Here is the input.
Amino acid sequence: MSVVRPPVVTVHLQTDWAASSFANDVRAGLSAQPRRLSPKWLYDDRGSELFDQITRLPEYYLTEAERGILRDSSSEIASLSAATTLIELGSGTSDKTRTLLDAFTATGQLERFVAVDVSEATLRGAAFDIAASYPGLAVEAVVGDFTQHLDRLPRGGRRVVAFLGSTIGNFYADERAEFLAALFATLEPGDSVLLGTDLVKDTGRLIAAYNDSAGVTSAFVTNCLAVMNRELGADFDLDAFSYVAQWDPALERMDLRLRVDKAQQVRIPGAGLDIGLAAGDEIQVEISAKFQLAALPALFTDAGFAHARTWTDPRADFALTLAFR
Here is the structure.
């Protein structure tokens, strides 16, 4: 009978990391033109709850498409990667990852699972659940920002780094290239990355996925104003903004913005800002880049990786790609 091994938790974030990083990002983003906010701050408790609702909406195809690929192809992914350590970036509750864990543990090859995210409470809970579900598996939780702490990823064994959910699409093109190059630099020869990417498709379906009929995505994006009011003492009038979701065909990305309906002067004491917003001004809150299937190999080879295999769902809505260092 396998013994449950308690997870090892490593914290790379300072106690005041969230508060100081939030203030710095808001100061930089809202002082820029065009004004923008980092999407990482959408996920307070309320935002996380709303996003969970989004993943269950009929218009939002991404989660189930990726889950289906994992269900159908995880055994092949495990075999091709030959990894003994599975690392997940932005793991949260590690919900979808259990499909991968089942496939990897079924082969007897997996020795260690490492979950990486910024929320210590969520990570600890998920790590203990995984440890209990997979006795004998070494489980580690790394509390860190994967855009800053890739060099802190645990070493040893043959590693595969999973970055699911098309989170890579939230990066601007230069950020995306920088992130993949940094990931390449921190991995060892034989290590691999498993990347989830949403694919370009009918514009109507894309817009519907980010502007659902129930208004959940609108509430999710608008919630960032409430977070700034609460955490930074701002005085945004939440009722004076409209949510706008647009498809940018030139850059092949969804562009999610808040448009000012009524001019206002906003004070944000926690970020040391006092800004004037005119009617019609917009704040870019999130982008979600979509990818051409034929262009995926270049995404990896440009960063130094060797493209191995790409899997899609039956409708070719989503892709999972395995690439090697």
The chain has a mean pLDDT of 92.
